[in-house]
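Dear U.,

For the methods section draft, I wanted the exact inputs and outputs in one place so we can describe them consistently. I've listed the two proteins in the order they'll appear in the manuscript figures. Please don't edit the C-alpha cell lines directly; just add comments below if something needs changing.

First protein:
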Amino acid sequence: MYELIKGANVGLAALSESVDSVIASLDWSSPTGEGDADVSVLLLDANGKVRSDADFYFYNNPVAADGSVQLLGKAPTGGGNKDRISFDLTAVPVDVDRIVLAASRYDGAHFGELDDLQLTLADGSGENLLRFAIEDAGPVSAFIFGELYRRGGEWKLRAVGQGYEAGLAGLATDFGVDIEDDAAAEESADGAAHDEEADATAPVPAPATDRAPEATLEAIPAPRQPDEDAGSRKPAARPRTAKKKITLPKVVKKSLAENESWKEAKLFPVSALKSDRDREMRATSVLLSVMAQIPEFGRRLTAAFGAPAGRMETFTEVSLPHGDSPRRPDGVIRVERAGKLWTALVETKTNGNSLKAEQVQAYMDIAARRGYEAVITLSNDVALEGSPLVDVRIDKRRKHKVALWHLSWAEVAHQAQMLIRHEGVGNMAHAWLLQELLHYLQHDNSGCHGFQNMGVAWVPVRNGIDDETLCQGDPRAMEVVESWERLIRQVCLRLGGELGQKVLPVQRSRRGTDPGARRTHLADQLCLEGRLQAELRIEGTPGVLAITADLRTGKLRTSIEIPAPEQGYPLTWAKRLVRRLAEAPADLHIETLVEGEAGGPRGTLERLRPEPADLLPKNGTQITGFRLSLFKGMGSGRGNAETGFIRSVDDSVHRFYATVVAHLDRPAPRRTVSAERAAG
C-alpha cells in the first residue's frame, strides 16, 4: 500500500486500474473508546468554492443526486471507528475541480484527543491503495484529511492534514457554504483559523517518483475578505440541497378488517415457502427486484462495494459456464454508466444456512474469467473485521481483480428502514414498496432474520463456566466471543434503524491491537470471569450503553453512566433525575458515582422516588455522575427463540433504551449549516 506524507500527492491511475469508483475511509481511535467525529465532503470549482450549498455533504445531506458522493456511515474497527465515503469519479460534474475530505468534532472536543488518525483509499475491488497517517492534528475541532483533484484528465489525491480551530462553521464558510446561524457565520468568516497555513501554501515535497509540477496548488484557500459594499446588497437566496423526500407515517392507519382473521394482502407473500431453496430463490428475487426499482435503495446497498451510480438491472436464474457443468448464481447485479458495465454475482443463504467456500470460490473464478467486478454473499451471518466468513483463494497471476463482499439480511433491513422511516425516498410508491420488502424480511417464514444462532460452542462453553472446567486458550471460547460480537453489531443495526440514529459498538483496546488479538483477550476474560461485555454509543444520548451477560448467574445487565450537571445543587440533580425516570421500571437500580471512592449511595427507583435525597453522599463527597442499571434473566438456548439468548439480549437493550435512556437529558445540540435546514 502506497504511503503518503503530508503535502504529497499521487495519481490514482498509477495505483490501480479500477479507480472509476473509490472508497475513502477516515479512521481514528480513542483511548476511552468514546471519541467520535463527523465526516463532511465539499465539491469545489476552479475558484476553490462550492458551486452552491448543495455541494456540501454531511450527516444530514449524505447523498448526491447524481451518485457522485455517498456517505456510507461509520463502521467499528479494532480500536475505534472508520467513516467511509463512496465516490463515483465518472459521475463528478466537469466543473468540479477538487473534492475536500474533512471531519469535525463538537461540544468542545478536538482531534488532538484522538489516536491513529489516517486517511485510506480503496479502489473499486476493495483493495487499499494508499494511506496517509496523521500525527499532528492538534487542538482543532475541524480537520481536512485530504483532497481529490483533477490534473490533466486524471484524478489525484493530496495528503492535506490541516486543522480549523473555528470548527465546521469556519471550514464551511471558507469554502463558500452559507451558515445557518448568522452570528456563527460572521464569527467564522472573520476569524477562521488555519493552524498550518504556511504548510498548505508551501507543501512538503512529494516523493521523488511523484513530485508533481502542480505542488504549489493551494490545499486550503485563504479566508474570504469582507466585501466593502456587502451591506448594500441583499443576501442571496439559499438553495435547497435536496428534493422533498417521502417517508411513511410511523402510526399505522386503523384497519378496515372485520376481525383479526382477515390478513392484509402482501406484495411478497411468505405462506407458500416450504424449503430452504424456496426461501433463497424468493428472497433473492424480491430483494434484487426492489433494488432495481428504487434507485436510492439499490445505490445504498452497492455503493460500498464500488458500484458506480447508473442504471441498474438485476437478474436471477442465470447460467454461466464453469468446467463440465454450468454454475447458476442466485443473482446478478449490473450497473451501466457512460457505456461501462459493473457486474456482481450474488450468492444467497437464508434460514441460518452457512455459505459454502467451494461455491463462493467457483463464483470468484467465473467472475475473474469473465471480467466481472465483484461477488456479493448474502446471509444471516454478520461479517467481522479480520474474520472472513469464507476463505477463498485469490489467483494473483490474474490481472483482473474480483472483490468479495458480504451483506447480512439484518443490514438490508436496516437500510430499508432508514430510508422509509427517517431519510425518505423519491415517491410514495417507492416508500410503500420498501415497506413491503421490510415486512417480508421480518416475517418468521422468510428465513431472512439476521444472525440468530450462537453456534455449536455456546452450550459447551456455558457448561464449562458452570462447572469451572473451561480453560484459557479453549478455541470454543473464541467462537463464542465472535458470535457475541456479531450479535452486538446486529443489535446496533436494529436499534439504529428504529431510531434513525447512529448506533455503534465501542471497542476499547490498546493502540494498534489487531482484531484477532483483541478477541483472544476477550476469550481469556470469558474463561476467567464468565462474562461477555459490550458497549454501544447511541447518537444523542448522554453516555455509553453497557451490556454485560453473566453466564455464571444467568443475568443480563444493561446500564448507562451519565455525568453530573456542571451547574446547580446535588439535591436538584437527584430530584430532576428521578422526575425524568417517571416512566422507568420500578426495579431500575440507581447508583451515585463519587470522586475518589468505589461507589456512593444506591437503591432502586421504587425506593428513591419518595426520597431522592437518599442519592446524596452523607459525607458531602463530590458527585461525578450516576449509573442506571436494569437486570434481566437471560435465555438459555443458543438460538433466537422466545427463550433464546439472542432474543433476550435484543429485548433487554430495546427495553432499557425505551424506558430509561430515551427519557434522559440530551447533550447540547450541534451547530448546523444552511444545508441541514434546506434539506428539511
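Second protein (the one for the lower panel):
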Amino acid sequence: MSDGRSLGRQLLRMGIAAGRGSTDGRVRLVALTIATSVLAVTLVSAMAAWVTYQERTERGAARTPVLRLHDGQTEEEAPLRLHFHLDDVDDRQVEVVFVEPVGSDAPLPPGVSRWPEPGEAVLSPSLAADGVGDRYGHVVGHIGPEGLASPGERYAYARPAPGSLSVKHALIATGFGSPDAGGFGDLATVRPFSVFLTLLIAMLGLPAGLFAVVATRLGAAGRDRRTALLGALGGSRRQLALLSAGEAAPALLLGVTPPTFLLVAALVTDLRIPVVGYVLAASDMRSHAWQLLAALAAGPLLLVALVVLMHRWAGPGRSTRPRAAGRSRPVIIGAALCPIFLGILSWSPTAFATQGATRTVVLVSMLGTVGALATLPAAIALLLSAAGRGVTELGRRRGLAGTLLAGRWTQGRPGYLSRLVAGVVVAVGLLSVVQVYPSMHSATVQGALAMRERFGHSIATVQIPPGSEGRAGSLVRALPTGAEVAVLDSTLGLANGAGEVRETPDGPVEVRQAVTVRGSCGALRGLGLDCPAGRTAGDVPLTESTPELRALLPASVTRVGVSRGPLEPRRNNMLVVHSPQGEDLPLGELKRDALAVLGPGALVEGIGQGWIGGAALLSSQLRWVTLLGVVGVGLVALAAALNCLAEVVRFARSIAPVSMVTGSRRVYATVAAWTLAAPLCVAAVLGSVSAVWITLPYTTPPRNGELPPQMLSLSASVLCALALLVAALAALAAVREARRWRPRHD
C-alpha cells in the first residue's frame, strides 16, 4: 500500500514536470487555467440562478395573500381588504399593495413590522431610492429583505383613507402565506427558470465546454506519445489518470482561485450584475452555501475528468505512436447528430406559427440552436477531412510536396480539424443569435420610443375607479394651471376596439365600439377636434390632425363622436389631461393627487405608457442575452486564438525537417495554407451560411428578427483575414525552426 501511494505521488510529480517541459506548456497552462475558471463560473452561475429562483419563489409565497375565508366567516369580518395597483417610475414597473386592515390584530406581511396609518406607506429600499416621495402616502419605513422577491424589487404597501376599500371593490384576505407564489412584483416579470437555464447553457455553457475541450487537447501529440509509452510499459488506467491529473494540477489550482474570490464576495454582500443591473442577494447565497461550494469544486473536477477521458489508456503492448485522429468516434457521432438539430431548427418556425411561443416550443427551439452549434464543427471537420483526399491527389499529380503533405495531414485528422474550426463556427453562430434575438422586438420598442419622442409627457390618461366618479371634479380643480381635460366615453372599454358579440333574446348581436369625446372647446381643440356649435355633433374621422386620439384608441376605432359640455364622468370613463403648449405634465404629482382624491383604483399613465413600459421590461430582459452572448463570443474567440497559437508552435516544430527533403522552404507556406488558412476560411464561410439556418426560429414568420447580410459578410471577411495571418505566422515560425534544426545522431 505504501509503495502504491509513493508511485501515485511520483506519477503526479512526473505529470507536473511533463507539463512544464512540453513545447507548448505555457499555452496549455494558460488555456487550462482559463478553462477551469470559466467552467467553475458557469456551474456556480447555474447554481446561483437556481438558488435565486427558489428563494424568490419562497418569499413570494410567504407574502401572497390568502384569499379564502375561514369557516363561518363573512366578507365583512375578514381582517384584510386589498387592492393591487400597478405604477411606473422611470418606465420601470412598480407594484403597490393598498391595504386596509380591519381591526388591530390584522396579520402583517413579511418584512413589515407594523401597519401604516391611513395616508402612510412603507416602500422597498429601491423604490424609496427612486425618489417617489409621498406619491403613495407619507413614507414611514422600508420593507425588510424577507418581504421582497429580490433586493432591487420596487414594491410598496400603502394604507388609503378609511372607507376607500369597500368589500364590493376590494380583494378579501385572511392573512399572508400561500403554498403557491402569486404573480406580484418581480415574480410577474421574470421568465421561468428552465428558459433562463437554457439561455445560460447556450450562451455561456457551450462556449465554456468548447474552451475546455480545446484546452485539454492542446499539445495532444506529445501527451498521446507519453500515454502510449506508459501503456507499453504496463501502466494501468489509474496510473495514466494520475499522470494526466498531475500535468493539469497547476492550472486547476490557479484557475479555481478567481471564482473562489467571486463566490466569497457573493456570500458576504449583495452583488449587482454588470450590464443587467440585477442585484444578487447575499442572504440567498448563504442559505445554500454548500451547494454553491459544490458547484465551485465541480469545475476543476469536471476538467480533470475531461483531461483523463480525452487521453485514453493505450493498453500494454500497443504502439507508442499517437492514435490516428481519423478514428475519432466523437467527431463522427457529432456529425451524425448535426442533421437532427438542423431539422429541429427547420421545424421551429412552423411550431411558433401553429402553437405559439409555448415553453415547450421555446425550449426545443433553443435545444436545436445549442445542438447545432455544438455539432456543426464536427460535420465541417469531416467534410474538410474528405476534401483532404482531393488535396492529396492534387499534390501527387502535380508533384507538389507541400500540397501532398498537407493533404495527407488533413485527411487523417478530423479531430484536429474539428477543434481548429470550432471556435470560428461557434463564434459566428453566437454572434448571429445575439444580433437577431433582440431585433425580434425592435419594431415594438421603436414604435414605443417614437410615441414618447412625439408626445413626451404632455398627455396623460386617468382611469376613474368605480364609485369615485363624483370626486373627479376635485381632481380636475387640483390640476396644474393651463391643463385641459376631456372625457373619453366608450361603450365597450378602450381595450375592446374590435367589438364583441352579445346574446340577446333575438339572438347574437354584434356590438361595435362607440367612443365619444366630451369637454370644453379648449380641451377639444387641444386634441385636434373642432368645437361643435351645439351640445352634440356627429362622428368625425380620426386623421393626422388628431394624433393624440389615434395613439389612445384601438386601431379598429376610426371615428369618434364629439360633444361640448361639462365633464360629468360616468362609470368606466377615462379623463384625458393634456397641455395645450405641449409641455410635460408633472406626472408624479398627478398620480399622487389622483390616488389621494379618487382612491387606490386610480390609474394615471402617460400616452403609450403600456407599450413603453413593456418595451423597457423587454429591454431589461434582453440585456441578459447581450451580457451572456458577449461573454460567450469572447470565450470562443479566445479559445480559437489559443488553439491557433498552439497549432503555430506544433506546426513549426513538426514541419521543420521537411526542407531537408524538398530543398526549399516554400513548402512551409504551402503546408500552412492548406492545413491552417484553408480550413479556417472554409469554416468562416460555412459558419456564416449555417448562421442563417441557426437563426431560422427568430427570422421566419411569425417572428420578425433580422440577420443583416453585411454582418455575415464582414464576419467571414475578418475571419478569413485572421486565418491568413495565422498561416503566415506558422510559416515564419517553421522557417525559424528549420534554421535551427539538425538531424539527431542517436
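Candidate sentences for the figure legend, describing the second protein: Confidence is low (pLDDT under 50) at residues 313-320, 322-327, 494-499. Residues 609-655 form the longest helix (47 residues).

Thanks,
Y.
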